[in-house]
Amino acid sequence: MEFDFEEIRCYKNEEVHDVLERLSSEKQFMKVLSTVYPLLPKEFIKQRLMGFQSSYAFQKEMVYPFLQYLEANMTLGIKLNGLEKIDISKSYLYISNHRDIILDSAFLCGKFIERNMDTVQIAIGDNLLIYPWIKDLVRVNKSFIVKRGLSARQILESSKCLSAYIAHVIDGNQSIWLAQREGRAKDSNDRTQESLLKMLNMFGTGSFIENLTKLNICPLSISYEYDPCDFLKAKEMQQRRDDVGFKKNPQDDLLNMKTGVMGYKGKVVYEITGDISNELKIIATETSNRNEQITLVAELIDKRIHANYTIFANNKIAYDILKNSRLFSSEYTQKEETDFEKYLSLQIGKIDLENKDESFLRARLLEMYANPLINKLNTSSNYLEEGE
Length: 388
What we know:
The protein has 16 helices and seven strands. The protein is α/β, with parallel strands linked by helices.
């Protein structure tokens, strides 16, 4: 079956110049670029935009310097580990946990650029494309569109097209970054949605395991020492608790994007965990039941992600406070504990709710920081002390 990818695909290199020319006439976009590069005159920025003939050149010359600025000013350094576990000449479907709307994939591309590796294509939900120019910007930045808010019938057709597109990109020797679930895990309890795996299987002509094996799935574990959106996530949890019909509006998404990009993140670690093709073949020998296979594959991806978290002092402190234990007390200082308590109070103070439930909000924040450690502990009793 032939699929039309025109509405969802990222832009081709031969389209880049015209798209950037169109973007250079967008006042909002130019205002954003002027904020990002305040020392550069607008006319100079426009000339730079006109000079790019490929998405990679745009990313390397325009996006990457801003990522360097963020790393220097909003983090204590970004590490990319595990390159030895992959063949950089091959394409992979990187499936990762999802913390930040923009930076999860952006920082990964930045680290690939530093190593003269090709960047990945990025899946992005169309609910985030609030303005038409944002759609142009993400597509010129090697993003493809995942349609949201569809009817049951539309979801089926859209999923088939998306599945075919992902297979097409991987077959064309381009890697992809994909979150393990729709939306971020607000409580940091990262779990792969089985519906995602069902979608990935839709285009293949073989068995479920054969279809997934062809995609070279590589789980990727992302660890932020601090999540600048933690207070916004906690706020949303209370809003959903108090109002079952609560829905975020586009301005909420914009605030989350801005806060995530410009907020302090501490140390950031990306851990490439390697291709799971061999493990998929083992699953095929364990059961021929497709539903059981889907569950086992989701658990496999989760275990890879959980086992490869970097654990920081604040994860251990949050665990001890939440569990009312002193299990990790020898692994952090009194000052670190006091500083984290101050941090929690500061973040709760940022939450503007009429019926603010501080004990609820504090518990949610603690869960966000404790859950990566809880999940890592569940994968092994002898977890590595990477965060020390």
